[in-house]
Amino acid sequence: MSTRDEMTPWSRDEFEARLRGLGARYHIHHPYHRMMHEGHCTPEQIRGWVINRYYYQVSIPIKDANVLANCPDPEARRLWVQRILDHDGAEGEVGGIEAWLALAEACGLDRERVASLDDVLPGVRFAVDAYVNFARRSTWQEAACSSLTELFAPEIHQQRLTGWPDHYPWIDDSGLSYFRKRLSEARRDVEHGLRVTLDHFTTRAEQEHAMSILQFKLDVLWTMLDAMWMAYVEDRPPYHSCPEASR
Ligand SMILES: O=C(O)c1cc(C(=O)O)c2c(n1)C(=O)C(=O)c1cc(C(=O)O)[nH]c1-2
To answer: Residue limits of the Thiaminase-2/PQQC domain (predicted)?
Structure first.
């Protein structure tokens, strides 16, 4: 490839196609998710995932508040603030955090215990915190770009809605409303996030930067599941090999 080719920006369509192409690395392909979708998770493995993912759920609105704090554009802020309401719940509505706690209860977990975050694995904390800190320190357009893994999320939510009632009949159906709710919310979010990204990252170097941001976010999601795999599949939680350690 000549230097000139390396400098030429991708067309809008090509840029979007490349961003979408990163879906090949989405956590839908992680062994933990595969196992979950194939119906092979034990109740403890499902519960471990629900407990740890709760930390992601409560951190997302904080991430989005950081995006708002870095955004000088009132029009963009007006659209973005909806993401916080989706999770925290607007007046008289059940938000995502509450819906996740309902999922936890439907899985037989104690809501107070889940909400305490006491059982969240350190690796999951580090990964999620890296995402929040990224939004804190980046421009709001970079943070918008990092949310684009949601391009791939409706498929994973739909898989759960379709597969779980058969595979995991012990989970009360009412617990699945979080996934139902996210189907439309994620589609609306990515429409905005994608528009911001395609408009903002226009030189070839900027477009490649956007690709690396989306890769970072894929790393966050993948790493969360790696930590869960070690703890709940390999049965090797942190410090399992320390003879003197008790937690
Ligand atoms: O269940 C999932 O696999 C999944 C993935 C993602 C994602 O791709 O980041 C999100 C969600 N769920 C989700 O429910 C959610 O609210 C959400 C917000 C964001 C974000 O980056 O702002 N990602 C996701």
So the answer is: 17-226
Which pTM does this prediction carry?
Answer: 0.96
Mind listing the pLDDT tens digit for each residue in 75-130? 999 999 999 999 999 999 999 999 999 999 999 999 999 999 999 999 999 999 99
Q: Please give the structure tokens belonging to residue 235.
A: 């049965």
CA distance 223 to 220: 5
User: Can you tell me which atom of ligand 1 is nearest the CA of 152?
Assistant: 8
pLDDT band at 225 (very low <50, low <70, confident <90, very high): very high
Centre of ligand 1 to C-alpha 11, Å, is: 27
* CA distance linking residue 124 with residue 26, whole number of Å: 17
Pocket of ligand 1 (CB under 6 A): 60, 96, 147, 149-150, 153, 156, 182, 221
